[in-house]
Amino acid sequence: MSRFFHGGASDSESSSSDEEELYSDREEEEVSSEEESSEEEESADEEESSSEEEAGPRGASAFLRDASESEESEDEERVTVVKSAKDKRLEELEGTIKLIENAEKIGDWAVISTEFDKLNRQITKVTQSGPVPKIYIKAIADLEDFLNETIAKQKVSTKKMNASNAKGLNAVKQRIKKNNKEYQTEIDKYRENKDGYFEAAEEQEAAPAAAPRPRVNRVERLETLAVSTPDEEGFATVGRGGKTLQYTPESILKHLRLIIESRGKKNTDRVEQIKTMEKLLEVAQSPYQRIRIYLTLISTRFDLSSHSASNYMSSEQWNSAERELTTLISVLEENRDYIVTEGAEEWEDDDKQPQPAPGEALHIPGSIVSFVERLDDELTRSLQHIDPHTAEYIERLSDEQKLYNNIVRAQLYVEELGKSDKSEPRQDSINRIVMRRLEHVYFKPSQVVSILEEATWKAIPEHLDSVITPRGKISDVPTLVQTLCNYLFQNSDGIIKARAMLCQIFFLALHDHYYRARDLMLMSHLTENIANFDVSTQILFNRTLVQIGLCAFRAGLIYEAQNTLGEICGSGRQKELLAQGIIMQRYSTVSPEQEKLERQRQLPFHMHINLELLECIYLTSSMFLEVPLMAQTSSSPEMKRRIISKTFRRMLDYNERQVFTGPPENTRDGVIMSAKFLAAGDWKKASSLLNSIKIWDLMAQPDKIKAMLAQQIQEEGLRTYLFTYAPFYDTLSIATLAEMFELSEKKISSIISRMISHDELAAALDQVNNAIVFRKGVELSRLQSQIVTLADKSMSLLESNEKTLEQRTQGMANAFQREHGPGRGGRGRGGGQGRGGLRLPQQGRRPGGQQFSGGALGSAIKA
């Protein structure tokens, strides 16, 4: 059947590499049969033609032959010419070489690259039935010379190649050196005597020399490395062609070369490659062989996750990669003559193993830091996809100890290399690994970090020590975090330095050092520049800001807590800003790619900040500020526009509009109901209801928090009472207030003094009689109240008109004011806060106050 397919298969075989691999095993058997069949066809045609000539014309053919005898003879000659498969392949080879030569004349490297690949596919078939043709040796030698000339001209010339030519040039440059290495002996002969090289072809055929090794496909090259030896039970691994496979120390580098070449290509069985490398490990003898195998093996395991359906490494593959990375670092620690570093030159001679010279180190291309980072990323990705409420998540989280061991051990290895090489790439590797270590520490309590550090140093050999964090010299966890951050502050810049600063602030806030965390945040100026950083750093900034707010609340600094948490919690997008979830809106314009990126940025569950607790703290802080403010502004028309928390006011208004309000069912209802009791003056019910919320038990010291809340309710209840009933009193006994709110007289006196100093209360303290004396101001009439309201509305209309004018004239109004002075009603408007800003409390005042905004009328009323 092959003789029928042969005639039309030559073109398809030369144009499709897939069919070459499919039919590569059959071609060796078919070549001989094709040649025999072609010879049989020639002999048969000759016999038929001779018999016809002897017999003469018969029947109708005699008349046709007389009519056009010359034409039929030409047709017969054309039909009877039959070429063998070898001749056809040589013709194709010559045609491809001619195309390459023509493309060289016009400098078309895109065509040269394409035809060069085609030429190498064709030579594989040609060498199966004979030696390498001389024309092929000449073509690849001339192409290499032309390539070197072109590269030399490009270095001198100022004119650049176009994109397609440059791409083709680079492709040929990468492949031709490796390709010509197999035929170097013949190429050298050709270059020594170009004229006599083809003349000696007949003599070489008579006394054929050893032909260079033919180019065959990868599977056949692997089979040539195999030796048939069965195992103890009499079984052996059988490859294609019935050959048994065995891996020897001499063939390790060749196997690794083939595996590396197949990376990134389709239809590559990575699981089979992993099994092959595991067998190579068993026969590896030298440290260099083991290092090369581990580097390739770990990379191949990581390739599995990029092509898997789940898009993250399985637990088995991750643990295997972690064990292999640990072993690799151990081998490097024991053999200091071998250094794995980025940018090292690759060893290309697979037949000979490199030997480091005495006193020198052999550099092997690779990156231990990149392996650790990828291992960390894969663990994070798997934790993102596992349900956090299952035992599988807890079991997977326990692998963090193994990962942290590798991070610290990789840090020690990179530090040792940095002693001899203080270059910028080496320093960058140290910064990256120290940053990874810090990111596994900053969000954990000190007790957890202590256990993690202790277990890590036990697993590390005693003769190894760190320069940055010496063994046994760092007594506690805060010192460890401070040491890591200080190192990054001194030796890094940009994003790593900013992230180190945020990690330190987060750690301080987590451990109740509010003032240090606040001062560091303000001194870093990250509030002004955070928009210029990447998204992950912005997420870390938001988390740090929230942690500072929680720290202020635990310290009893209610105003600071509400002010810090206002922008994150008031936006209603806490999940997105903290990377703890995605809110899918109904009419969202987010593309699938953007949604995928958002999901990749999500933090694992064990790093989450409790959003329900965060909302409860924000609403509680807003309640302590809003309820006294509402009592203060109830009798002052000029103060009604003041709002501290729109979110809290909206929830309170919604609750008041309800026809029936039952007992609180969740945390939010509990805070709102407590606010209503506090506004009504029943501080005891407000305190009991607020302390009954179960969310407080999630905090570190719930009893201390509840005591602080009870004290705050007593103080704010006193302030609310004074704001509400001050117009109805002339004097009020401090002892009576102490009995009503169960506070000491000294505490009440200090609260009233602060209110008086902040202009929140028009009163004076009578220390002789231990009482408060209220000053009666001039009460506004109805007409005066309406005038004040009208003045405020007029001022707001004026501001809105000015804003509209500025937008329409594109800033011309501002230019006019700069030239001619401010216009009528020239009232300056201050700039707003920046994104995510940490706003300091107003100095000398608390929210509220009895200042008038009615202009001249207000001043007259005050006088």
TrEMBL record:
Superkingdom field: Eukaryota
Keywords: Coiled coil, Cytoplasm, Initiation factor, Kinase, Protein biosynthesis, Transferase
Biased composition (Low complexity): 838-850
Coiled coil start-end: 166-207
Location relative to the cell: Cytoplasm
GO molecular function term, any single one: protein serine/threonine/tyrosine kinase activity
Gene3D superfamilies: Winged helix-like DNA-binding domain superfamily/Winged helix DNA-binding domain
Biased composition range(s): Gly residues: 823-837
Comp. bias (Acidic residues): 16-54
Major site of localization recorded for this protein: cytoplasm
Statement: the UniProt record of this protein carries the keyword Kinase: yes
Disordered: annotated segments: 1-82, 816-863
PCI domain span: 605-779
Subunit structure: Component of the eukaryotic translation initiation factor 3 (eIF-3) complex.
Function (record text): Component of the eukaryotic translation initiation factor 3 (eIF-3) complex, which is involved in protein synthesis of a specialized repertoire of mRNAs and, together with other initiation factors, stimulates binding of mRNA and methionyl-tRNAi to the 40S ribosome. The eIF-3 complex specifically targets and initiates translation of a subset of mRNAs involved in cell proliferation.
Family: Belongs to the eIF-3 subunit C family.
Descriptive protein name: Eukaryotic translation initiation factor 3 subunit C
Organism listed in the record: Paecilomyces lecythidis
Lineage, broadest ranks: Eukaryota, Fungi, Dikarya, Ascomycota, Pezizomycotina
